[in-house]
Amino acid sequence: MSTEGDVVEVVEVAAEAPRGQMTVEEALQEVLKKALIHDGLARGLRESVKALDRRQAHLCVYVETCTEKEYVKLVEALCAEHNINVIRVSDAKKLGEWVGLCKIDAAGEARKIVGCSCVVVKDFGEDSEARNILLASFQSR
Description:
By secondary structure, the chain is of the alpha+beta class. It has five helices and six strands, in the order αβαβαβαβββα. It has helices at 24-37, 45-53, 69-81, 92-98, 129-140, and strands at residues 41-43, 59-63, 85-89, 103-104, 110-111, 118-121.
């Protein structure tokens, strides 16, 4: 056994730089991703309204720019009646991407994103820092 031919390569892995406090939008993305993994999302207006009416919802996210104002009234009324927290998002395509209504290409980029008007979280999945940040933001309102 010769040590002359052996080459040991040392690779340093930079630890994740500690970021500041997570924003509400970043926390929402993470909560939606975890809920999607644990099959705890109702996506689309029909599924969302069913979950809201059955009182299965913990959180409702809908798009501000919905063209049908009756949809917005319905979702807001159900959330107010059952004391469910509401978050408004600006873009339907962005919300659709967050809840998995897209195809992921080989490079990991989202393609063929379908817009989503309303999403309800029925099961948060595991407890996380993002969930705590979202709940704290509702407490501070």
